[in-house]
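User: Design a sequence. Structure:
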């Protein structure tokens, strides 16, 4: 269902200022703001835990190592 809402000029200016690109819709802007406050999924939490363990175990690469490997 699509609906129309009324917002103040000040809120309109704020939403316009939060656009990442010119044609971004206000719905996309609002979803982006809501997403920032949502809790992480269980899968994401597990991935973060795994990544932290790998970093702690020294399974990381420096930027210079990655650049060297890529020939950059």
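Assistant: Done.
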């Amino acid at each position: 269902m699509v609906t129309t809402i009324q917002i103040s000029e000040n809120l309109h200016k704020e939403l316009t200022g939060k656009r990442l690109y010119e044609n971004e819709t206000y719905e996309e802007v609002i979803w982006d703001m809501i997403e920032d406050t949502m809790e992480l999924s269980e899968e994401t939490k597990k991935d973060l835990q795994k990544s932290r363990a790998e970093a702690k175990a020294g399974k990381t690469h420096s930027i210079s190592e990655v650049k060297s490997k890529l020939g950059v």
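The chain is about 60% helix and 0% strand. The mean pLDDT is 94.
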